[in-house]
Amino acid sequence: MFSYKANFKNYIEIGRKIKEIVNSFDPNAKLYIFGSAVKGKNVASSDIDILIITEKIELKYEIMVKVFKSIDEPIELHIITREIFDKWYRRFIPIEELVEI
């Protein structure tokens, strides 16, 4: 039986599995977890927010397909460049709420 509480307690492990996949496309990519999983405010409808910063943005959809085929967890992928992170995401996600994997 799927347990959201147990699943969210293992968000670091899930992040590590995703990082392995992402590294096969871009070894220099940065991966962070943020949102309700990190804050401990997840509910039954929550997912695990994964932020992937890569300069190989042209591989975004290939990365997404590989991750979603490999990871059977409620996740949301945010695949962006460093420039987009600095211009947009940084405004809304406090640095202290980003857990680097």
From TrEMBL:
Q: Give one Pfam family, short name only.
A: NTP_transf_2
Q: Please provide the record's keywords in A-Z order.
A: Transferase
MF terms in GO: nucleotidyltransferase activity
Which SUPFAM superfamilies does the record match to this protein?
Nucleotidyltransferase
Top-rank taxon of the source lineage equals: Archaea
All copies of domain Polymerase nucleotidyl transferase, residue ranges: 16-99
Please give the Gene3D superfamilies that the UniProt record associates with this protein: Beta Polymerase, domain 2 (3.30.460.10)
Please identify the protein, giving its name as recorded: Nucleotidyltransferase domain-containing protein
> Upper lineage ranks?
Archaea, Thermoproteota, Thermoprotei, Fervidicoccales, Fervidicoccaceae
